[in-house]
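Q: What would this chain look like folded?
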Amino acid sequence: LKKGADVACGDDTSTLKELVTAWINQEFCPFLLIKPNDKYSCGFANDICGKLLCPAEWNWDQNSVKAGIYNRTSEYIVSENSWPLFVYENYQVNSNNLEEGFLKSRLLVMAFKAIFTSPSSASQAKGDGDGADILENNRHAQHRSDQTKVKTCIASIINMKKVTPCAITYIICQVCFALSSITSWSTVDGDFDYEAF
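A: My prediction, written as C-alpha cells:
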C-alpha cells in the first residue's frame, strides 16, 4: 500500500509542478516566465513564488523580509508554524482577522480540483475561493455525461464525499513543493517540515 501511495504522491507532484507554474505565469504574467523544469528559478529566489510561499504574517514587499527569508536569518525562519500567503483569497491576509479568506485562494482550489477531480476541471475554478461544492459539482458533471466515457476521478475512487482537512493539507504541501526551489521531494525544506505541518 505504501508503495502505491508513494507512486500516487509522485504523480500528483509531477502534475502540479507543471500546472502550478502555468497558472502562476498566466495569473501574474512575470517578465521571465517560470519554467516547471527549472526549480532554481522558483522558491524564495523568485519574487512571485517567494511572495506566495511567504508566511502570511510577514509582508513580502518589504526588502528586509525578502532578505531575511532568503538568507535564513533568525528573525525570518519559514517553518511549518505559519500559513503561506497562497492559502488566502487573492493572496492577501487581513492581519486583524486571519480567518478571512483562509483556504480560499484560487491557486489552492485549482490544485485541489486538479488532483481530486481532474486537471481539466481545475480551469473551471472561478477564483472566488469557494470550493465547497467541488466534489458535488464533479459528481453532477459525471452523471450528465451519460453517452461519454468519463475517467473516474480520484475523489470517486476513494469515496471522498467532502473536502477533508487531510486533503487540504496534502494539497498545500504539494503546492509548497511546486513553488519551492527544491529539486526532489524531501520531508524537510530548509526549516519547513512537511510532516510536522
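The first strand starts at residue 188 and ends at 189.
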